[in-house]
# Entry
Amino acid sequence: MRILIAVIILNLTLVATGHAADIEGSADHPLVPRYEDSEIVAYATEAFTDYRLLNAKAENYGGLEKNHASTIVLEGKMARISYRAPAERSVLEVFRNYENALAEAGFETIFACDREACGGRNFNHVQWSGDLYSLFGDYHAEQRYLAARLKRAEGDVYVGLYAVENKAGGGPNKDRTMVQLDVVELQPMEEKMVLLDAGALETGLSSEGKIAVYGILFDFDKADIRPDSKPQLEEIARLLNDRPDLEVLIVGHTDNKGTLDYNQALSARRAQAVVDVLAGSYGIDAARLMPVGAGMAAPVATNRTEDERAANRRVEIVER
# Structure
């Protein structure tokens, strides 16, 4: 309600209602209204995922993967909404309306840029790194962007807002201002994975020769083991101490975000990190542990939802 009141006072043309031409199942984000008479042309939400928010100029050609240094990593509930603004509305007009509405709603801008100051073509390529080329691809002369944050007790909210004129595509998008609105609400992940004690690990290895472990946790895109992994590592060490004859593969697995080569290398580094901790902190002979990086090559579920991707992100212990 605060947003809508502010919009009315400022005589802006942002509204929070839906539109008959929106794609089925889509909706505005409750914290950010749309520009009047815009239409939702692409829409996706995830209950919990990781997201890289651009907070600096894109220095490198090659999309998001080549510009990680220009991002901050967020985890939480995400909505990605692509709008087509009405005809004959400039990028600047649409962008300024969003900028004002966000400020009135309490968002603070943490980064903003336009045209070549964003990084020109490099920045534009980051915006359509997924399947949004037909909406935003390869035209950046009038691009404008801002990243903003709303501080809340229940978890901060981050917004990435990108506006550009569509000159590369045809059909109803041609010469129209297109808006990409990404909203991430920070929140803790719902913990569903059960700690596997030494007995459960032994049972899994005895029956199947391998067992998936979800209690070894890493920060997004890193191979540093998080401190809350300690209980699971202690149980693995207890199993290996109880079974001095046991030799195992420590196999890292990822979901399908990123390239094949990148994920294989990341999973290998994570597997090596587990070996290093078991040997260095728990006294397990490193010769009994062989690190292997499987990357995305051996999923246990599809990668279509966050729950399925979470199932694929794991460490497996495999009997040698």
The chain has eight helices and twelve strands. Residues 1-12 have pLDDT under 50 and may be disordered. The first strand starts at residue 14 and ends at 15. The CA atoms of residues 43 and 81 lie 5 Å apart.
